[in-house]
Design a protein that fits this description.
Layout: H1 2-14, H2 18-94, H3 102-112, H4 126-134, H5 143-181, H6 186-191, H7 193-199, H8 201-208, H9 211-222, H10 224-248
């Protein structure tokens, strides 16, 4: 093909047809430029498609992470709601100003007081952090998805901070509570509560009247930002999943 075009150029020069030669040369240059532009366009499309495939892979992982987190948060929210309810009932019994019998103490201790109340979710943010560091976040075509991602992980950051503070407070109160009232063998209590309550009634009375127990339950009731944060995260997570699925699936 190159030899063919070269022969045409030589023929035009030999025939002293300079104007035709220049016109032909210009046309040949234009063809080369057009070919380069087409090649660049194809290469750009290939690169863009590759980039969008990478974004889709990231968003698929993020979607799965969020789906699991939403399930976990719903379970934790149910737990927190239950803990909140029992704290309310415990304070109701404790603040009744009546002499507490073994039955009342049993209700406060075995049913409502949960020494394992400090719980914390581990939010998987590795895929989102990788998306940010890769520079692909700004290449997501749908701005609603970009905004939803940022908003969702902002709520995650807030919840992590609030949960850490809440759990540290609960651990401190638990530690101080048992330092104040002492410790008995709780396994014996759960195996034979009536006998243990009768044997350790003074301990249980001291336990129920401890201001640390009051602080525990009052704090459990007062921390509304965490409960509201769970609802907010669930809503934003489900909306983000819907956006990703509608755009990429």
């Amino acid at each position: 093909m190159i030899k063919f075009f070269r022969k045409i150029r030589h023929k035009l020069l030999n025939e002293n047809k300079l104007s035709k030669y220049l016109l032909y040369a210009a046309g040949e240059i234009i063809l080369v430029i057009v070919g380069i532009l087409i090649a660049l366009s194809i290469n750009t499309k290939v690169e863009n498609q590759k980039r969008q495939d990478e974004i889709k892979d990231f968003l698929n992982i993020i979607k799965n992470d969020i789906s699991k987190t939403v399930v976990d948060v719903k379970e934790l929210k149910t737990y927190r709601d239950s803990s909140k309810y029992y704290s309310y009932k415990s304070l109701e019994i404790i603040n009744s100003n009546l002499e507490l019998g073994i039955q009342d103490i049993s209700k406060v201790f075995s049913t409502n007081y949960n020494p394992n109340a400090s719980k914390k979710l581990v939010y998987n943010k590795s895929a989102f952090n990788s998306l940010i560091s890769s520079g692909l976040m700004t290449k997501i075509k749908n701005p609603k998805i970009r905004d939803a991602l940022i908003n969702y992980y902002e709520v995650v950051g807030e919840l992590e901070k609030w949960e850490t503070t809440m759990n540290e407070d609960l651990k401190y109160i638990n530690r101080e509570l048992f330092l104040e009232v002492g410790i008995i063998n709780l396994y014996d209590y759960y195996s034979n509560p009536n006998e243990i309550l009768d044997k350790h009634q003074m301990w249980f009375n001291k336990f129920v009247n401890s201001h640390f127990l009051h602080a525990f339950h009052a704090g459990n009731l007062d921390d509304l930002k965490i409960y509201n944060g769970y609802s907010k995260l669930i809503k934003k997570g489900e909306q983000l999943i819907e956006l990703i699925e509608s755009e990429y699936y």
